[in-house]
Write a structure and sequence with these properties.
CATH architecture of chain A: Orthogonal Bundle
Oligomer: heterotrimer
Number of helices of chain C: 4
Number of helices of chain A: 3
Largest sheet of chain A: none
Structural class of chain A: mainly alpha
Number of domains of chain C: 1
Number of strands of chain C: 0
Radius of gyration of chain C: 24 Å
Helix content of chain A: 55-70%
Strand content of chain A: under 5%
Distance between the termini of chain A: 64 Å
Order of helices and strands of chain A: HHH
Shape of chain A: elongated
Chain lengths: 117, 152, 90
């Protein structure tokens, strides 16, 4: 059943990356820009996990395991690190947006460009 | 927030925090571990901050105590990494010794808790670090929009 | 002029990504030499039932040390950004 899927998850990842690039290039509101970056990080995590799927495999945990054919465990470990890095970068970006709003009174990417005194 | 939200928060918060601690401690038998359980615990604290005023939560949960918890979690993690330094850097030195050192039978089995060497202690260290870190981020961001000066 | 350059470059990037997605391995059969060794030997060498936990903390513990450092640095930076200004004492 899964042999006739013809790499559909990888095509979905390509569509998500295209959507997030469009959002990052053309939006002017800073909060929408942060949403585009978060979509890009989610697409990359999804790609890492879907690289390690084996047809008919079970969860890689030996407690009451149904069979010994298991999904690959190493991409799941790399995705764990990537999720934590994404959370840290998002927290820092949102804190800087709060400080920009306190200083300028509007959040527009075109207006907060020059260094004021 | 309204009275319905405050009543449901009073009912549900102990269960959320207890479930987060369960996911941290059983990290070597069931799916989960340090990072996942720490995120569940920190979202329970975020529920408290949203339902009640953040100034009331800051009376019980100062940033100074959170900083001490996070630093002790990081030091415990590095200390466990150096414990097996006679062989190599991250050596699992407690497999075979009577404290945490049983080896489970081969293949499928119901889980045993006192197995897996250094790994449950590392789960607890990373869990403390993630709990203190994410709670500090949410608390500081909520306090900054209510005109309170953050002390040293 | 700016809109034409934006849309044409986006279309070229998406076509390149779709071509890479069609050239990867078929979806259910990954090449797996290292993971077969880890699945067969993780219970005997580390003694843990959870293979992902033993990969994160035992076979690749150095990456977890780097990730803990990143989390610590990010929390320090966020708390530093929201600090109130002290009065200058001359």
């Amino acid at each position: 059943m899964t042999e006739s899927l013809f790499n559909i998850p990888f095509l979905a990842i390509a569509a998500l990356i295209g959507i997030s690039f469009y959002i990052i290039i053309t939006q002017r509101n800073l909060i929408k820009l942060v949403m585009g970056i978060v979509i890009l990080e989610s697409a990359v995590n999804f790609f890492l996990v879907s690289l390690g799927y084996r047809s008919g495999g079970a969860t890689p945990i030996y407690t009451n395991a149904p069979e010994k054919l298991m999904v690959l465990p190493v991409p799941q470990a790399l995705t764990l690190t990537s999720i934590v890095i994404g959370v840290s970068v998002t927290a820092l970006m949102l804190s800087m947006i709060i400080l920009i709003y306190r200083h300028n009174d509007n959040i527009d990417a075109e207006k907060s460009r020059r260094l004021k005194g | 927030m309204s009275k319905i939200v405050r009543t449901i928060t009073n009912l549900f918060t102990p269960f959320i925090l207890m479930f987060g601690l369960y996911v941290i401690i059983h990290g070597h038998i069931t799916p989960g571990g340090g990072f996942q359980g720490g995120a569940v615990f920190a979202s329970g604290i975020a529920l408290l901050i949203v339902a009640f005023n953040s100034k009331k939560v800051q009376k019980y949960l100062k940033e100074h105590h959170l900083s001490v918890i996070e630093s002790s979690g990081a030091l415990m993690f590095i200390g466990l990494a150096f414990a097996g330094f006679a062989t190599t850097f991250f050596f699992n030195v407690l497999v075979g010794s009577p404290i945490f050192g049983q080896i489970p039978p081969d293949g499928s089995n119901p889980g045993f808790i006192w197995t897996a060497g250094v790994i449950p202690l590392m789960n607890i260290a990373v869990g403390l670090k993630v709990i203190a870190g994410l709670s500090a981020i949410v608390l500081v961001m909520a306090l900054s929009s209510s005109n309170v000066r953050i002390e040293e | 002029m700016r809109k034409i350059a934006t849309i044409s470059s986006l279309i070229i990037v998406v076509i390149l990504f779709v071509a890479c997605a069609l050239l990867l391995h078929p979806f259910g059969q990954p090449p797996a030499d290292m993971d077969d060794y880890i699945i067969n030997n993780a219970q005997g060498e580390t003694g843990a039932n959870n293979v992902v936990s033993s990969v994160v903390f035992d076979y690749r513990g150095y990456d977890t040390l780097g990730e803990a450092t990143i989390l610590f640095t990010a929390v320090t930076a966020v708390v530093m950004l929201f600090r109130a200004k002290k009065e200058e004492t001359v």
